[in-house]
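just leaving the lab so this will be short. what follows is a protein written twice so to speak, once as letters and once as structure tokens for the fold. can you read through it and tell me how you think this chain folds. anything you notice is useful, everything is just below:
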Amino acid sequence: MKSPRKTTSNSALELFFRVKDSKVHGKGVFATRKIPAGTQIIEYQGKRITEKQADKRFGLDPDNPFHTFFFSLENGKMIDGGDEGNDARWINHACDPNCEAKEEKGRVFIHALKDIPRGVELCYDYGLIIDQGMTKKLKASYECRCGSDNCRGTMLAIKKRSK
């Protein structure tokens, strides 16, 4: 039997997943056994930063300037999973997710929305919110690659039109 990795950043539930190459984008997180619906899988960890600090860190990778590991919190701060982060940063976006992120007392946890079979990639809807107006170029900069039948083509949250 394979023994679990020993780290301080992941809980005992790390037995539920492993990081490997993803067909969606870069690295991904995959179930190593069935994960029941409602399971709290992992906490999204990283350095707590301000929006101003995030602005300075944004776009530092010239090959992929729109890629970050930022997670916005209700209090206006952000978690930078690329700085002191854990495996949660590798969970990819999907328009039909099998997980969701829930903020609980300033901490973010990833939970299974439904039973996730062994070998399936974990994903949640990033629903990114930006201040700029939505343009084709901006949507393309945040292109979604999930391949879902319901794919909206972008990781950005689509604003609902008022009646």
About this structure: Residues 139 and 154 are 6 Å apart (CA to CA).
